[in-house]
Amino acid sequence: MAHKLLGEIMIQAGWIDEEKLNKALKFQQQQGCLIGESLVKLHYATEEQVAMALGKQLSIPYASKENQILNPEKSQGLEKVIPEKFARENAVIPLFIENNVLAVAMTDPTNIMMIDNIKLVCGMEIQPFISTRAQILKVIDAFFQGQTNLIDRVLDKGREAGGKNETSDADVITPDGKLDLDKVIIGESKGAQSIKLVNAIMKQAISERTSDIHLEKFDEKVSLRLRIDGVLYERSAPPTDLVEAMISRVKILSKLDISERRLPQDGSFSIKYQNRIIEIRVSVCPTVFGEKLVMRILDRGSVELNVKIIGFEQRQMDDFLKAASAPNGLIFLTGPTGSGKTTTLNAVLNTIKSPELNIMTLEDPVEIKMEGISQVQVKPAIGLTMASGLRSFLRQDPDVILVGEVRDNETAEACLKAAMTGHLVLSTLHTNSALEAIPRLIDMGIEKYLLASTLLCLAAQRLVRQLCPSCKVPYRPSQAEIDQFAAESMLDPLPDLTKMTFYKAAGCPKCNNMGYKGRKAIYEVYFNTEAMKRIIYKDADVQKIAVEAAKSGAWNLRASGWRKVFAGITSVDDMMSVTVTER
Known about the structure:
single chain; alpha/beta; 19 strands; 22% strand
């Protein structure tokens, strides 16, 4: 019996229509790719939808975290059946063993050669499941994540060897200049103790979802701290006599001046780790006890640019995307450094991008590289500033422009002119709340009547830590917490307050005994209504605008935080630490 065509299956499922299929078929002929790849590249369908359709076409089960199939059995020793290196290189993950048959999730179950290779590796018959590459690699990260403390292991070996054993590490630099972290750690490559320690710190930091590594020397001690989910945690510190060598090692990788120890220096380098490229931003600053090193980890592979999962409530997402679908106007997202503004704006761009739109970004620096979008990094030293870059953008026939940050009057005016001449402009500001962006922009020289007519949406965000689902503890909230929830959540109608359950952090091996695992954004989103426009035009009174926004159904950051607490996503303490009440 002949299989149904993939396009036919996807039309029947309601994921695409005939018009999109015909466009995808033309694109397929031009690009010489598979129809599934064509649909994904044109943003007509997701990788998950294509994988599900292929599963139906081939009568092969679809595996995902949602349907609980992409969840390897922990008690069957599967990590010994298929080695981690093989799993990563081929995007396959063992799921379970039954009657000497190994169930394996893979991206292409029609690849007979791959299935034969897996048979040779494990010595069993294979039952294939289909999944997406992104989902498989994410599960591989969790499944093979070692429990051994790499930093302690290297420190122990160094003590045994007396800290000697100096050799070159040239063999672990790839031809394009990237440090191959898999090779130096997994291969137990010999090298200087300082080199091994730097590599071990980076690998452990990435496995612990670290955003920043802090290494600094004090009078009588050394401090090594990792920032995980926004909080700094101490880790085993290297010996005092190795700190300078470790900082020199990072300087060499970053192409900085190792002889300069009196002035701050900034640089960057890239590493290859687990089949993905990770960028490391480096900052070295002189202190009274020596240089302090901070390394920021920009792991694009760990960022999922999906507006449905980053933290928006449904009403907020609808309002933001309604503004982002407008042909022209201004959208501003506010929040402190490190609150996830770049991720949110890139997720929005990832949602609206299509071959019909010319999207350009001007950033400092470009942190998330995206296919199908022209991204430019500002270089003030040669005259490429936000304002000058934005003026040149207008000659590039853009539809949507993302400006990394509005810092001065010149940039604010350039954004306004772009919005007034038929372009959609998205940008960020540093203000405590979304509505405070209005007086800030007016102070920058934007006329109230122009702001009222061009402003589409204002939003603010913060990040709250997510409670570990494996160990969070339910409890009956106190009367004070119930009263505060009722007063600040802005829910209408309120849930039954007598039956409410909140959760607090505990700690288990799955979250490294932190009680939290990952972060989620909370937002306040204000779509600029006609009533709000009239207030901005008249006197731009923030309190009046807030009252009018509440009438239209919008709510503030604290109310969003209470919604996350009520849903069991975060704790009251963590939510309170990142939000403030409206005065």
